[in-house]
Design a protein that fits this description.
CATH architecture of the largest domain: 3-Layer(aba) Sandwich
CATH class of the largest domain: Alpha Beta
Oligomer: single chain
Number of domains: 3
Strand content: 15-25%
CATH superfamily of the largest domain: Mur-like, catalytic domain
Helix content: 25-40%
């Protein structure tokens, strides 16, 4: 079994828990994370100034308890003068750090940190931090489930569920935290140090926020910048970007996707996950549960390796692989209609995710893609489309660019709405085909988020199934 050479103390490097009482702190962005920070600070005698581009009415409609919090709210703007008068600025992940008021605050030497950094100052239990372009949520939940089955009192949150600051409010009764972290959250760390970091993969994403791909890689790489030799980094051995980014990492490396007999970690032999440990090899069967696709094999390998580091028994790790049902909007089977299978992969918001989703299917695919363009390169989609896709249906703001750059890979239709795309897919599909919604784009041009987009797709498919059934009954 793997072991941690030392239980890393996340407070290492801090002489004491910071005393923020009496300070003036600006919380930028008052969505779920921002409001959690406001609650935390308000309970510690901090003068809190919250700012958001929405109106007070819009904020209170979405978050009714805002009016009960002791916070000064600046609405419909982020005020430069307020930032310059602050002792500390907490930036929510949805707010770009490049906005002008923040740039002025940096010039004024005002510290700007993320909620994750703040939470780490007040969290004394070990933290497992999971990041990567794709697979973060599935891997985080798998690790959390394995450790719970092993009897641990586990906090699971971060970029999913509860913000880490909610744990910092009181970590009594909790043994370990497993948190999903986005590049946005990692941008604002200074001393945050996970006992175990998990780096799944790095492909192009969020280039509408970052100046270039290297800046995005740099943000992801902040996961391990504070780790030392007593910490562990679980990483993808076959991802060249990950390999390059982690070359100077000081933590002990545990690999997955291993192909060398000399390397400690996990690999896939085509049928089983094999975990190579000091005592020998452990074999896991990834095929008994609801997770499908090669990308989920990677997620399972990373989860097994991490959970075993903390002593989760092998049989309980295998049990999790068998009982985990997968997540909505992540290669989610919706329905089979007249021999055509429909899959909802609305969370496939970048090119790398779509490539891995397409690799799951062998039969002809009708791919519905498009949305708000994130500025990435669509070229990696060319070969998977040529191999597996018989027709492309593009929607949203990115549809014309996608059609232009992928024009010679498959036949193409441009649709004005998701409903039109599903209707068109119905006419093109034949028994044995797969209709896959995997957008490679964000949803904000047409939907509130990827969840609303995925739910809309599922509703359209179910309506299609009812319509087909009525037609069959009418013919009878």
């Amino acid at each position: 079994m793997f072991t941690l050479s030392e239980s890393t103390n996340p407070m290492k490097g801090l002489e004491r828990t910071p005393d923020l009482s009496g300070m003036r702190v600006s919380v930028v962005g008052l969505a779920r994370t921002g409001l959690a920070v406001v609650r935390f600070l308000s309970n510690r005698g901090v003068r809190v100034i919250g700012s958001d581009t929405r109106t007070r009415e819009e904020l209170e409609k979405e978050f009714p308890d805002l009016k009960d919090l002791d916070v000064e709210v600046q609405q419909e703007r982020h005020a430069e003068e307020s930032f310059l008068q602050s002792d500390l600025i907490i930036l929510s992940p949805g707010v770009p750090p490049s906005i002008e008021p923040l740039a002025r605050a940096r010039k004024g030497k005002i510290p700007i940190i993320s909620e994750i950094e703040l939470a780490s100052w007040f969290t004394t239990i070990p933290i497992v931090a999971v990041t990567g372009t794709n697979g973060k949520t599935t891997t985080t939940l798998l690790i959390g489930d394995m450790l719970r089955k092993a009897g641990g009192r586990v906090f699971v949150g971060g970029n999913i569920g509860d913000p880490l600051i909610n744990l910092a409010a009181s970590d009594e009764g909790t043994d370990i935290a497993v948190v999903e972290l986005s590049s946005f959250q990692l941008e604002g760390i200074e001393r945050f140090r996970p006992a175990v970091g998990v780096l799944l993969n790095i492909t192009e994403d969020h280039l509408d926020r970052y100046r270039n791909f290297e800046a995005y890689v740099e943000a992801k790489s902040r996961l391990f910048i504070n780790q030392g030799t007593s910490d562990v980094l679980v990483l993808n051995a076959l991802d060249p970007i990950v390999d390059r980014a982690t070359s100077s990492c000081r933590a002990r490396k545990v690999y997955f996707n291993v192909t060398s007999d000399q390397m400690e970690g996990a690999f896939f032999d085509g049928r089983h996950i094999i975990l190579r440990v000091q005592e020998g090899e452990e074999i896991y069967d990834p095929n008994r549960g609801g997770l499908k696709g090669l990308h989920n094999i990677e997620n399972m390998m990373a989860a097994v390796a991490t959970a075993r580091l903390y002593g989760c028994p092998k049989d309980l790790a295998q049990q999790t692989l068998e009982t985990f049902e997968g997540l909505a909007h992540r290669l989610e089977f919706v329905k089979e209609v007249k021999g055509v299978r429909y899959f909802n992969d609305s969370k496939g918001t970048n090119v790398g995710a779509v490539v891995k989703s397409l690799q799951t299917f062998t039969g002809p695919v009708i791919l519905i893609a498009g949305g708000k363009d994130k500025g990435g390169d669509y070229a990696p989609l060319r070969e998977p489309i040529k191999e597996r896709v018989k027709h492309l249906i593009f929607i949203g703001e990115a549809r014309e660019r996608m059609a232009r750059e992928l024009r010679d890979t498959a036949s193409i239709t441009l649709a004005d709405s998701l409903e039109e795309a599903v209707t068109r897919a119905r006419t093109l599909a034949r028994p044995g085909d797969t209709v896959l919604l995997s957008p490679a784009c964000s949803s904000y041009d047409m939907f509130r988020d990827y969840v609303e987009r995925g739910d809309s797709f599922k509703a359209l498919v179910r309506r299609l199934a009812r319509s087909e059934k009525k037609e069959e009954e009418a013919e009878c």
